[in-house]
Design brief:
The chain has 147 residues and is α+β, with helices and mostly antiparallel strands. 16% of the residues lie in helices and 31% in strands.
Length: 147
């Protein structure tokens, strides 16, 4: 059981040191997990057509007055804050999967948007944004002249 192989690397391993090293490594690996999630929040679907695009974003529990929508060229940025739940005295979380705090998400759109005509509506926890395509970016039919 404790043959010469235990001395192969010239040292005896300390289980506590190994556990502490493992804990540090796990903390390092998962320290950015919430930041990674934040970049994908809120989850979205994007539809496109000749006249524009529609973006729907799942945002349950978010006050629509605390969400900002910015459109510049072909980029859409959603930013805001999800407030944390207020716990009563003596209460604590058993499980907490919904993130809270500030979020920002920028989407690259397939074309330039007419930002003056963008419309947004929040209903049943879903934010729906209608993004009309800019006239300068719409496909045009070119008439061919012949002699």
């Amino acid at each position: 059981m404790f043959g010469p192989g235990i001395w192969r690397f010239g040292r005896i391993t300390d289980p506590m040191t190994d556990m502490q090293r493992l804990q540090r490594e796990m903390n390092r690996l998962f320290s950015g997990a919430s930041e990674l999630y934040a970049h994908d929040f809120p989850p979205v679907n994007v539809w496109r057509g000749e006249e524009g695009a529609i973006v729907t974003a799942e945002a349950p529990g978010i006050d629509p007055d605390k969400v900002e929508i910015a459109v510049v060229g072909d980029s859409l940025t959603l930013s805001g804050v999800r407030e944390s739940d207020v716990l009563k005295e003596g209460e604590s979380y058993h499980r907490q999967e919904r993130n809270q705090g500030r979020f920002t998400r920028t989407l690259q759109l397939p074309f330039q948007v007419d930002s003056g005509k963008v419309e947004a509506k929040y209903e049943k926890g879903v934010l729906r944004i209608v993004l009309p395509r800019a006239e300068v970016d719409k496909p045009r039919k070119i008439k061919i002249k012949s002699e």
